[in-house]
glucan endo-1,3-beta-D-glucosidase (Medicago truncatula), 338 residues
Amino acid sequence: MPGLFVALSGGETVFGRPFCAEYTLEKEGFGDLLLTVVHPLHLQLLSENDCNNVTVLNDFKYKSIDSELVGVVGCDPWLLKTNSVFVTWHFINGVKEELHYEIVSVPLNDVEGLNSSAITRTSSYFYGKLIARLALIAEEVCFLDVIPKVKKYLKEIIEPWLDGAIKENGFLYDQEWRVVVTKQGCSDSSYDFGSEFYTSRLYHLRYFLDGIVILVNIDPCWGKKYKCRAYSLMQEFMNLSTCSNPNYTHLRCFDLYKFHSWAGGLKEFEKGRYQKGTSEAVIAYYSARLIGLEYGDANVVTTGPTLTALLSIRAQMWWHVREAMNMREENFRPGFWC
């Protein structure tokens, strides 16, 4: 009968166009109207021009931790559009030539001190953070003399992890949960920030991806050799299709309703699913985009910056709360952190 509501039973999210997320909704029932509730960011991003007969029910509201949810009728599919985020190898506006020497002097000193044998940490998180981005800086300011040494250093510290040659630690694949863990994390639940419980996936792997994609950029032959392993690390948190790659879950950490990448795994946390490290999550998808650029993967090139844009705008709305926004009750407004 016309006018009856139908129930939402499922759906699918497609990132077919840059900076767009299209939600195809599955319905149950005999009516012709689908009632859903959306949060303020949905309303901000919802493109009424691409949704048929959208009606916002301003009097149909539900209080939640993410501010008031508002009823929406007739939007199927949802098409959410966000502003573009330019993710490229080089600084968009360039670097002033008079600043080149000052910029180069710092990485030059760092390069002189590069010594892979001096690294004593075996934690995947801290080891990954030691992988420098000096090659990018050098290329940006046309100081190419340092790149061979950076290339040698990156190979020496990345290859043992990809080859499984780190005696004290290393990456392992857990078939039950379809996730990459570390050897030390499996033997000690407190090691690698809870790798055994699949905690903080993005923050461990993104640093390795940073180094890997730089090495792929300056040594394509090396990139071809290690492509499968580089993709395995990237798809651990940014698998776009479980049909083409059933080894990992779909977008493991990314919440397609709240637009947040959760750090929590199986372990319970006092404050829910462990919201932290938005900046590290943003850089993880940034690195994934660069991986896509290097290997000519159009899907990754499109989806990486889209997730980056959604994460960024979410952080601005719910983490960087301005006094005038009135999104929270008075006693919840102070003390937000990111």
